[in-house]
Every structure is written in C-alpha cells, then in structure tokens.
Amino acid sequence: MGSLLVQPGGALGTDVSIGAGKRLFVPELHVGSASLSITGGGSVENSRAGVADNFAGNGEVLVSGAGSAWDANDLMVGDIGNATLTISAGGTVLCNS
Questions:
Q1: Dihedral through CA 50, CA 56, CA 62, CA 63, nearest 10?
Q2: Averaged over 67-75, what is the pLDDT?
C-alpha cells in the first residue's frame, strides 16, 4: 500500500497514481513539481485544483481510459510553472472555471 502526501495548501509532495476503482477527494489540490495519473476508471474530485499554478515547477496530469475522470470545480493549468494536462482514450476532465 502506497501513501499520498498532500502538503499544507493542498500541494502534492510526490507522484501519485489513481487507478481502477479508486476515488480520491481532496478539497484543494496543487500539482507543482509532481505528477498525477488518473487511469483505468479511477477518479479525482476537487473544489479547487491547479497544475503548476503557483509553483515554479513542472506539473503533469494524465487522465486516460474509459471512466477515468478529474472533476475540479475551479481549475488553473500552467499559471506560473510548466504544466502538461493530457486527456486521452476516453478520460474526462470537468471544470466550471
């Protein structure tokens, strides 16, 4: 069993993979110098999320595969650092802003 390190302010402290049948809810999530992979039908839900939004890092998010989803009410991608958001093979990303 692995661990997920979410630092103060919701920052990922490591690379994280959410796979088949797994669901993660974190109210605020920032992927700075880390990666987040949502595959195989896994899902992540956030009220607020960002990829390289307030860190001078290289944030990467992959959402891939049927049923794989990232639902972030408020999403910022690449405001300060270098961000990559890849959506493929039936994955979905939902956001209101």
A1: 10
A2: 94
Phi, psi (degrees; rounded to nearest 5) at 54: -140, 25
pLDDT in tens, 24-58: 888 888 888 888 999 999 999 999 888 887 666 78
3-class DSSP string for the chain: CCCCCEECCCEECCCEEECCCCEEECCEEEECCCEEEEECCCEEEEEEEEECCCCCCEEEEEEECCCCEEEEEEEEECCCCEEEEEEECCCEEECCC
CA distances from 46 to 13, 71, 74, 89 (A): 17, 6, 8, 22
Residue 6, pLDDT > 60, answer: no
Q: pTM of the prediction?
A: 0.85
What does the alpha-carbon distance between residue 66 and residue 46 come to, in Å, rounded to a whole number? 20
